[in-house]
Design a protein that fits this description.
By secondary structure, the chain is an all-alpha fold. It is built from 2 helices and no strands.
Length: 59
């Protein structure tokens, strides 16, 4: 819907969470060593965010 910002705000929030998650996972890896499950979770979060960006742009 033209003029609607709900999808845009949700996408921006999800993007911020994804970037914050990357920072946290990287800090954990530097401090305590790598954990594959954390990286896997971040990749899944990134893919969800990417899907939100694509669907928001196409509508």
């Amino acid at each position: 819907m033209p003029g609607s910002t709900n999808g845009s705000n949700a996408t921006k929030t999800m993007g911020a969470i994804t970037v914050g998650g990357l920072v946290l996972v990287t800090a954990y890896t530097v401090a305590l060593g790598s954990n594959g499950w954390l990286w896997f979770g971040w990749v899944v979060l990134g893919l969800i965010t990417l899907g939100m960006v694509v669907t928001t742009k196409s509508t």
